[in-house]
Amino acid sequence: MAKSTTHGILAALEESGWVLRDPITRRYTCGYAVANLARSADIRIPLVVKARPHLERLARELDEVVFLGICTGYQLLILDQVESSGELKITARPGTRMSVFAGSAGKIFLAHMDKELLENLVYSGPLPQFTANSVTDPGQYLADLERIREAGAATDTGEYIYNLWCVAVPIFYGKKARRRMVAGFWVVGLNSEQAPQRMQTALRLGRATGEALSRSMGHYSTDENS
């Protein structure tokens, strides 16, 4: 088939969850829809393997749930989750999709999106209001993204789901001009009197984890997909 036809088919399959594209090698593998259907599909993303020890360490230090995800189209796709030890937990199994506007988790991806594409997306229609804390003014939203890009992390309290706070951090691949964001992780906790202090701790440890993960991506080999 022609390359354009093949690309169109793969894009449709990726959007519906039947195939999954590795964010670094750009290679395709079976998606979570196949796994749910056949229960035997082998979904292997080296990124998940490399990130897991870092995220487990972060989850232990904070005792909060940590998610790893990528952006596919205009949705976030969760690749992995490390649970906390608490009785009350926030869970979302691998394969779960979320809106790209889902609080800080989405903002960290949007903050590193191409400027023209980002503005078209933000101004294409009303921004979703998930809670009363959601930012729905396009100008303010874009200003928030600019601050997030400079800060290297995003935070929110109840913007996507009431009574939850979130700290999100990008993961980069490549060096200098070729450096690009390929994934992100976010820490989610329940609102409490200690939420501001816990968020500051999560922000500090999260940034350190993101830097360590981005450095480790320099050893990411395409052979690991074989």
Care to describe what's here?
The chain has 226 residues and is an alpha+beta fold. It has one domain (45-225): GAF domain (Beta-Lactamase, 2-Layer Sandwich), CATH 3.30.450. Helix content is 40%, strand content 22%. The protein contains 7 helices and 8 strands; from the N terminus they run αββααβββαααβββα. It has helices at 3-15, 32-38, 46-62, 103-110, 115-123, 138-151, 195-216; strands at residues 19-21, 28-30, 65-72, 75-82, 97-99, 154-157, 164-173, 180-190. The strands form 2 sheets. It has a 6-stranded antiparallel β-sheet, sandwiched between helices. The chain has a two-stranded antiparallel ribbon with strand order 1-2. A hairpin with a 6-residue loop joins β6 and β7 (164-173). α3 (46-62) packs antiparallel against α7 (195-216). It is globular, with a radius of gyration of 17 Å. The two termini are 24 Å apart. Mean pLDDT is 89; it is low at 221-226.
Helix and strand topology:
Elements: H1 3-15, E1 19-21, E2 28-30, H2 32-38, H3 46-62, E3 65-72, E4 75-82, E5 97-99, H4 103-110, H5 115-123, H6 138-151, E6 154-157, E7 164-173, E8 180-190, H7 195-216
Antiparallel strand pairs: 1-2, 3-4, 3-8, 4-5, 6-7, 7-8
Helix pairs in contact: 3-7
